[in-house]
Amino acid sequence: MKIVLTLAWRNLWRNRKRSLISMSSVLFAVLLAITFNSMERGSYERMIESMVTYSTGYVQIQDPLFEEEPSMDNALLFDEELKEVVKQLSSPVDYWVPRIQNFALVATDEVTRGIMVMGVDPEKERRMNNLTDDLITGDFVATGDDGIVLAEGLASILKVTTGDTLTLLSQGFQGATAAGRFGVKGIIRMKVSEMNNNTIYMSLPAAQWFYMAEERLTSLVLMPHDPKRSRAIVEELNSKLDSDWYRALHWEELLKDLLTLMKFDTTSTLLMMLILYIVVGFGIFGTIITMMIERQREFGMLISLGMKRSRLAMVCFFESLFISLTGAAAGMLLSVPLVLYFHHFPIRLTGEMADAIVDAGFEPVMPFSDNPQVIISQALVVLVIAFLIGLYPIRKAYTLKIIDVKR
After folding, report:
1. Cβ–Cβ < 8 Å for 299, 319
2. Using an 8 Å Cβ cutoff, are 133 and 186 in contact?
3. What is the C-alpha separation between 95 and 89, in angstroms, rounded?
4. 29-69 pLDDT, tens per residue?
5. Quick one: which of 52, 100, 174, 395 is 20 to 30 A from 267 by CA?
């Protein structure tokens, strides 16, 4: 085997230009595939991270009817019994975030708009998503505070700033009328565009007073130490909680529409990468065919001198394999610094493309994923292509007719 590998490697450099061109085609294919895959996966990870930290969390406990009919009438009772169940989970929960999330109308002297009220525990909410880092002006709400914080887009629509007063109107718990006047304490820039145009934050006690829902929440968000254990936590909660009053949901269930959209987009990307690899595969295959035609007399002479066809087939197979592996390794090495750079310094879009992405409800940023699986998966694809192409020289070595070659 050592002799076979040595012969295969030396044969590559008998025609350096041909071998380098073939390796380069593999190199650029792997580089483009890893780049596209990393960019796509990074964008998806950024979307999911934004939605999980700003909206759903990894695990939520809700009233069973709340998902189908999200109203205050379907708010859950946050009592000591529920707290005790959460504390006794076998997979530890790092912390929980109580929330009231409900619709309301906000009005100024000139504008009325439907918005989402987020009643939060300021300390726990800050721990979950670092909201205070995104403050543009003013301060975030404090526990027991009766002020509110507006998202930047909503503040621009309403044409208000800190110190102004807004009127909120909604329907509270069990049909009660919810109405109140609140001072604007701060303005915050939300990373999720949809939330940036329609979100108001207030302290949880203020929201419970506004909706007349003492000790009630629309959802209890759980943030586990290990997010990978989220599914197990959901199953354990549903086994312990009374299904008539409580229901635990995984973040994938809460973001079904977003995940469906991602799967559809992934299919189109896979199609594009399939076309890329087909082009590269035929490029390598063409090189191998040319090599076999040019060296027919050489192969015929070697067989005539006593070289076994099996050994000749293995030499040709390893030549094609070396071309693919060398190109793939070079592509992987070049892609690592590129992916890491754009992972830490993501591309920020501008102009019409940025506006289109913002209108779709996402942040106009293109981060790259540093997940090693992105690189490994592309290397495996190249190995499969190289193996399939390497079967042709084996077949050719066994079917080569020495008399026809000598003529």
Report:
1. no
2. no
3. 12
4. 788 888 888 888 888 887 777 778 777 888 999 988 888 88
5. 52
